[in-house]
């Protein structure tokens, strides 16, 4: 085990954490708020991160084992260091602080705060910033900090299996730079539009960061509904849909290659499913007595929030008809597009699983049939099909295990099931006690720790977390991860 290299990557993550906390530190100083809650963590992370990074300089080769270790260490270090500002306020327990920050970095949006406005504005900005960082992708975040060669950074990305690891250009570092540029530009545009719509500047930035990360942390306990502005809701809804799209396609749209982007099969399914669920939910609300325009508006926002797995709420859908309460969690299971900051299964996997099922039904009638599954008119390998079906099986297994564990904690089945489902899909808002007006504050420490693991598993897409826990990962001979000559 190359602990020196693992230390270097851990050091880079600490330096990144210190840099990220510098923004709310400056904001707190300008606003006249207490700066110690950020100053101490910033100095500590910068000092320790600098020492670890310096000791590991010169290491350029990373094995699969070290990639897994580094990912696990980085998530652990970022979660613990990021929780320090909340912990130093003296108002939040350690497990609650860690839960809140893991929820932020994994872009889940589940909160333990029963009253969000009770926190200082600098800490609310920090919560939103963790979602912005988590949205652009932890892999890309490290790539911008770690000098590596011979494909090491791409190997680290493969270890995490993050959607953000998809390349836009032959050179991975160039792909990461363009992805960050598009992502950052969209955040600034949304923040500007929200400011023009009447939202205070700092809250505009917070909501833009939370939207970009498809996380859903708001600066108000009532969420977006607290602003009582259809214009603000419309802006956020549109950007939620945008951030649920593969960032590669967003780049194609931005550069004028609209026709090429529209040919993407996953995007067409994403748009089609959104329209279908929007109309179904709106129809259910109309039958329940809502006016046509009001029903369409409420359904548009909440469907956009669900399909992008953002978790923002413009109404208490706990009081909506049963069909709506069934559809909203179901939509988050499908998730956003591959290569977006959203969670869930991802539309691409759902498409492949559906095509695999269809092929097997044909084979049951005609066993001799030979049919190749395609996506975007390109054949998909049987290995990819097998991995997709295995991923869905792991997903369902995690859901059932988490549901049982939370039910054992004394939670009602609807609360327990929706809490696990929304945390695993990184969408945050569930039903009953964890609905739009609820929080996870009353959950037991064991339940919160369980959901922390569920959030991490969902964000890391299960495999790294499972492999880290397997003894054979650490006892088997180390093998270098597959890496040709890739540009940095």
TrEMBL record:
Q: Which GO MF terms are attached to this record?
A: metal ion binding; potassium:chloride symporter activity
Reading the lineage from the top rank, the first entry is Bacteria
Q: What is this protein called?
A: TrkH family potassium uptake protein
Could you tell me the membrane topology recorded for this protein?
Multi-pass membrane protein
Q: Give the family this protein belongs to, as stated in its UniProt record.
A: Belongs to the TrkH potassium transport family.
Question: Which residues does K(+) bind?
Answer: 107-108, 215, 309-310, 426
- Which InterPro entries does UniProt cross-reference here? Cat_transpt, TrkH
Q: Which UniProt keywords apply?
A: Cell inner membrane, Cell membrane, Ion transport, Membrane, Metal-binding, Potassium, Potassium transport, Transmembrane, Transmembrane helix, Transport
**Membrane-crossing residue ranges in chain numbering:** 38-56, 68-88, 124-146, 176-194, 235-255, 267-287, 326-348, 388-408
Question: Which locations, inside or outside the cell, does it occupy?
Answer: Cell inner membrane
Q: Give me the Gene Ontology terms describing cellular component.
A: plasma membrane
Q: Name one Pfam family in it.
A: TrkH
């Amino acid at each position: 085990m190359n602990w020196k290299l693992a230390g270097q990557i851990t050091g880079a993550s600490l330096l990144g954490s210190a840099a990220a906390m510098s923004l709310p530190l400056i904001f707190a100083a300008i606003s006249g708020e207490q700066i110690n809650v950020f100053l101490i963590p910033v100095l500590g992370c910068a000092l320790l991160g600098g020492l670890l990074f310096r000791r590991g300089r010169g290491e350029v080769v990373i094995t699969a084992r070290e990639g897994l270790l580094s990912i696990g260490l980085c998530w652990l270090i970022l979660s613990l260091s990021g929780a320090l500002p909340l912990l130093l306020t003296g108002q939040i327990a350690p497990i609650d602080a860690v839960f809140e920050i893991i929820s932020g970095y994994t872009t889940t949006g589940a909160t333990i705060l029963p009253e969000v406005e009770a926190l200082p504005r600098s800490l609310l900005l920090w919560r939103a910033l963790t979602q912005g960082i988590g949205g652009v992708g932890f892999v890309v975040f490290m790539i911008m900090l770690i000098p590596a060669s011979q494909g090491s950074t791409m190997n680290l990305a493969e270890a995490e299996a993050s959607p953000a690891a998809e390349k836009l250009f032959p050179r991975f570092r160039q792909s990461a730079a363009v992805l960050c540029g598009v992502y950052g530009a969209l955040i600034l545009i949304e923040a500007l539009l929200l400011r023009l719509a009447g939202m205070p500047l700092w809250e505009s930035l917070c909501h833009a960061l939370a939207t970009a990360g498809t996380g859903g942390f708001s600066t108000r306990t009532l969420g977006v509904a607290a602003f009582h502005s259809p214009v603000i809701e419309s802006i956020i809804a549109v950007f939620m849909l945008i951030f649920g799209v593969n960032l590669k396609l967003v780049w194609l749209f931005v550069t004028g290659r609209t026709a090429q982007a529209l040919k993407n099969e996953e995007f067409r399914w994403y748009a089609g499913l959104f329209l279908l669920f929007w109309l179904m939910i709106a129809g259910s609300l109309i039958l329940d007595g809502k006016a046509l325009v009001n029903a369409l508006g409420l359904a548009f926002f909440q469907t956009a929030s669900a399909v992008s797995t953002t978790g923002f709420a413009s109404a208490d859908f706990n009081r909506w008809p049963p069909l709506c309460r069934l559809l909203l969690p179901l939509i988050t299971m499908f998730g956003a597009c591959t290569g977006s900051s959203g969670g869930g299964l991802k539309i691409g996997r759902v498409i492949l699983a559906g095509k695999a099922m269809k092929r097997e039904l044909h084979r049951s009638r005609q066993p001799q049939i030979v049919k190749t599954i395609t996506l975007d008119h390109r054949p998909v390998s049987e290995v990819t099909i097998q991995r997709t079906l295995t991923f869905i099986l792991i997903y369902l297994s995690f859901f059932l295990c988490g549901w049982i564990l939370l039910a054992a904690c004394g939670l009602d089945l609807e609360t327990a099931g929706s809490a696990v489902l929304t945390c695993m899909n990184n969408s945050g808002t569930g039903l009953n006690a964890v609905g739009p007006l609820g929080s996870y504050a009353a959950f037991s420490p064991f339940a919160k720790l369980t959901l922390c693991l569920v959030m991490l598993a969902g964000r890391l897409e299960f495999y790294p977390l499972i492999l880290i826990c397997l003894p054979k990962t650490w006892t088997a001979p180390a093998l270098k991860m597959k890496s040709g000559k890739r540009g940095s």
